[in-house]
Amino acid sequence: MAQAQPREDKTAAGVLLMALAVVFFTCIDSSAKWLIVAGLPALQVVFARYTGHFLVALLLYGLRDPGAFRSNAPGRQLLRSLFLLGSTILNFTALQYLPITVTTTIMFAGPVVVTLLAIPILGETVGLRRILAVCSGFLGVIVVMQPWGAEFHPAMFLCLAALTCASLYFLMTRLLAGIEANATHQLWSSGIAAATLLPFVLSGWAWPTGGDWIPFVLIGIFGAVGHIAVTTAHRWADASILAPVIYIQIFLAAFAGWLLFDTLPTVWTLGGGAIIIASGLYIWQRERKLRKDVVRPEPSPR
Could you tell me which Pfam families the record lists for this protein (predicted)? Predict the structure, then answer.
């Protein structure tokens, strides 16, 4: 059975590694949209993403330590893996219809949803100011979606479902902190996803052609390296320091959308994204302050 590695104080390296992970996450979405636009079924693209991820994890962890396949909490690990799979399927399906900037911006509401779900799931207490920040975050999502305008597409509901699954995945990861090793996380999340999808993709399998083979092969490597980088970054630096780094993805997504698909974010996407990011940063700052207040030592008696 794999053992969880101890924390290390490498804050600067942790931040850089988190930024690198965000680059790889943008590469995942860009590869997925490229392949789906090229005509590959969305489920097959998800399968390629997790199969490649599993092969990398197998080479790095499974072959060296077969005990890494054994989980300390198999039920929670299974649930965590299925939430991640569900989020990916929904997100990749939405990418078939929506620009990367839209799907990425809506997913930025993750900290908002996590804050809301942490109340019933983790029993956390959330004050009035964070509740207002949650409401502001959802207002930003509505601005991005524009349910009143011509730009609205029903696939945006898939983004909301993906956001919910991703938030539950993060909560399950939090519940498994200190219980499960990184190797087990990687092997389970990728292996379960690949095994679950295999029966569904075989009947309608479509081989990529020409240059489409490049993202088809690389998408799984992007996923493996990105998730390994995130886990390592959180071992090197506090989550409260790493959390805002994810927001650089809006610039990366905008650049990828322009470079690969000749699309630019709309004013509504940028405006709604600014509201979502502001609410997420407030929640991050508030939670960081509360943690400091809890651990701040009392003055020594004189």
Answer: EamA
Q: What is the pLDDT of residue 295?
A: 37
Instruction: Show the DSSP H helices in the chain as ranges.
Output: 11-37, 42-57, 74-95, 100-107, 110-122, 128-145, 155-175, 182-202, 213-236, 239-242, 249-261, 267-295
**Could you say which DSSP state residue 149 is in?**
S
Identify the three-state secondary structure at position 262: coil
**What pTM did the predictor assign?**
0.85
Closest to 233 (Cα-Cα) out of 10, 65, 67, 42? 10
176-182 contact pairs (CB < 8 A, 24+): 176/73, 176/76, 176/77, 176/80, 178/4, 179/4, 179/72, 179/73, 180/4, 180/71, 180/72, 180/73, 180/77, 181/2, 181/3, 181/4, 181/5, 181/68, 182/4, 182/5, 182/228, 182/231, 182/232, 182/235
For residue range 48-60, list pLDDT tens digits in order: 999 999 999 999 9
Cα 20 to Cα 12: distance, rounded to the nearest angstrom: 13
Q: What is the pLDDT of residue 300?
A: 39
Coil vs helix vs strand at 298: coil
Q: What are the b/e assignments for 12-24, b being 16+ CB within 10 Å?
A: eebbbbbbbbbeb
Task: Tokens 């679950």: give the residue.
Answer: 196
* Cβ atoms within 10 Å of 39's Cβ, excluding its own: 10
Query: In which residue are the tokens 């052609």 written?
Result: 209
Structural domain boundaries of the chain?
11-290
Q: What is the mean pLDDT of the chain?
A: 86
Give per-residue burial for 89-118: e unless 16+ CB within 10 Å, then b.
bbbbbbbeebbbbbbbbbbbbbbbbbbbbb
Cβ neighbours, 10 Å, residue 46: 25
Q: State residue 3's pLDDT score.
A: 61
SS3 224: helix
